[in-house]
Amino acid sequence: MTAQRQRRIKPSYCEMSRKTIKILLVDDDEDDYIMTRDLLSEIDGTTYDLQWTTNFDGAVTLIEQREHDVYLFDYRLGERTGLELLRAAIEKGCRAPIIILTGQGDKELDMLAMRSGAADYLVKGQINAPLIERSIRYAIERKRSEEDIYRMAYYDVLTSLPNRLLFRDRLSQAMGLAERHDRKVAVLFIDLDNFKRINDTFGHHMGDQLLKNIAERLKNCMRKCDSLSRQHPDSAVDTVARLGGDEFTILLSEIGHGEDAAKVAQRIIETLAQQFTLNAYEIFISASIGIAIYPHDGNDIDTLLKNADAAMYHAKSEGKNNYQYYRQSMNASAFERLTIENKLRKAVDRNEFVLHYQPQIEVRTGKIVGLEALIRWQQDDKLIEPAEFIPIAEETCLIIPMSEWVLHTAATQIKAWQAAGFHNIPVSVNISSQQFQHKKFIGSLHGVIKDTGIRSRDMILEITESTIMRNTDIVFHTLYELSKIGLRLSIDDFGTGYSSLSYLKRFPLHAIKIDRSFIKEISTSPDDAAISKAIISMAHSLKIRVVAEGVETKHQLAFLSEQGCDEAQGFLFSRPLPAEDIEKLLAMDKNTEGSIFPILHRGYGIVQRR
Predict the structure, then answer these.
(1) Cβ 298 vs Cβ 307: under 8 Å
(2) Is the CB of residue 375 less than 8 Å from the CB of residue 579?
(3) Closest CA to 508 of 533, 485, 531
(4) Taking the domains of the chain in order of start, what are their residue ranges?
């Protein structure tokens, strides 16, 4: 019997997006293949194209071709398992639903399959035609819903270009490959000149149509410029993205020389200079372009984008309709960094840090349901915000002793508040990437809990999205070890890291926090509103709580309340406060029947949840 077979079974299924459902069965037992084939043949009104392979490597080869709508993986595949194949498929970028077939009902195994990314699982001895049909239909419809959420989250609604989130992810991938292979990456920041005049003259509808046409020209221009980059098969993807408004960015994932970016920029300027014809009107537009090169102009995403943006403004100051490279002022910045690093080393030894705490509010009730511990550097008479010293602490590995201090201090404060009568207010602590990956991290946490006498559930660990995606196998193990201790886990800055949403169901998460960059423009940006809405809906479908950070206005809160967001924190309620001030807030909250925050009382314009 050959390792692969194909058989077509019966016609037309109007409820599916295709007339034929292509299925790959991976099973080393021919009897199981025959049983599956015969069960599918009993289903009326459906056309199935069933392909069968018996081995792991053959399955991977077929999966890479991405020709199937559904995959059926037997759990036992000789020396390998269906779960291993499932993980390999996900790593290969497989987006089609995968159903695991098990020999017997093992609840623990079945749940592991679902957490690993399976759309469903079936017990072989219990499978019949209606059951397998329902499972396939459910898997396809669920995957279609996930794809809709994915598009909303990662693509611009107007132009269908990648949005800011997806662009950052691809830039991160390109920078990683460039560092590994000693290459250069270019970011082009494009801003249309005098675009507001188009909207004011012709209206926003015409402006939107022009943006669509510009997006098409940029994509076509990049196809013509493709020979300037992607010279190696393992290059990242060149990307044209719309950040919002009339701002676009281009990622050149691999350039041989800095001059290559200028050639692309010049071609873009020439392409956009050609007239656009919209509704019989001839419209002319120009663009200013800033160029930043990795690693010369920045070693991280934010710095590179900031410098490309600065170069773009320089292009505007030079008369618009031109491009400019970013110019560094190395001496001043290097001296400033060295000064901060020296002071920071002394600060660790002298214990110059303090913790402030920001309340987390339950949107439905207005009650304080948690606190986030935030480190501050007490230097002389002023408090230094973490954004000014945390990046340097991470680069110099000072973040490890600082993070251990934060854990001990927060746990000690939790115990003190419990002694004062506040027993059910968990404190969230941010865990750095270096701390999370440290081999003694779990042991250190055990020690903190034992030394301070707090309960595991009294502390929530906040881990950034980029941290958990760096090495998913190690992360998967670490997260489950933490959940066994009883510690609750939250994803911080959600939406700014990895582009795939499928990992969420793999990890034992308590909550996700929508990044403040989306909340900031949630009332004025349809894109940010759509992304936030999608994140809330997706998280709730996975039984994960949602916390919005950076909430500063009534309108932001109203939107979040309408969408059913669970918790919120931000300056609208309270700035981060010292422990003694927080204790006063907790006492007020405990002794007040309703919310202590006036903004949450009726009559302040807050939309009530249905």
Answers:
(1) yes
(2) no
(3) 485
(4) 5-154, 164-328, 335-600
pLDDT at 31: 87
Reference 173, options 93, 97, 261, 84; nearest CA is 93
d(CA 425, CA 168): 35
Please choose, from the candidates 416, 413, 441, the residue with its C-alpha nearest in 3D space to the C-alpha of residue 427: 413
550, two tokens: 């950076």
pLDDT single digits (tens) 433-487: 778 877 788 888 989 999 999 999 999 999 887 777 655 566 777 888 888 888 8
Give the bridge partners for 36, in sequence order.
none
The DSSP H or E segment spanning 562 is helix 554-563
Gap between the Cα atoms of 523 and 530, Å rounded = 11
DSSP per-residue string spanning 257-281: SHHHHHHHHHHHHHHHHS-EEETTE
The reported pLDDT for the residue numbered 172 is 92
Which two structure tokens, joined as six digits, stand for 271?
A: 């392409």
Nearest to 53, CA basis, from 44, 45, 65, 61: 61
Taking the C-alpha atoms of residue 147 and residue 168, their distance in angstroms, rounded to an integer, is 19
pLDDT tens digits, one per residue of 10-57: 333 334 444 688 999 999 888 888 888 888 888 877 788 899 998 898
**Tokens 């700035």 sit on residue:** 575
Low-confidence ranges of the chain (pLDDT < 50): 1-18, 229-230, 233, 329-334, 498-500, 602-610
pLDDT at 147: 74
CATH code given to domain 5-154: 3.40.50.2300
**Measured between alpha carbons, how far is 142 from 131 in angstroms, rounded to an integer?**
16
Domain 335-600 class? Answer: alpha beta
For tokens 């399959």, the residue is: 113
- Outline where DSSP puts E strands in 363-407: 368-379, 382-384
Same fold, 5-154 and 335-600: no
Ramachandran region, residue 397 (left: φ > 0; alpha: ψ -120 to 50; beta: rest): left
439: its two tokens: 């081999």
The first and second tokens of residue 317, run together, are 């100051």
- Element at 428 (helix H, strand E): strand 427-431
Tokens 């590994």 correspond to 180
Q: What per-residue confidence (pLDDT) applies to 538?
A: 87
Amino acid, res. 320? K
Q: How far apart are CA 362 and CA 595, in angstroms?
A: 10
Beta bridge partners of 606: none
Evaluate whether 153 touches 165 at the Cβ level (below 8 Å): yes
CATH code of the region 164-328: 3.30.70.270
Q: What are phi and psi of 255, to 5 degrees?
A: -125, 145
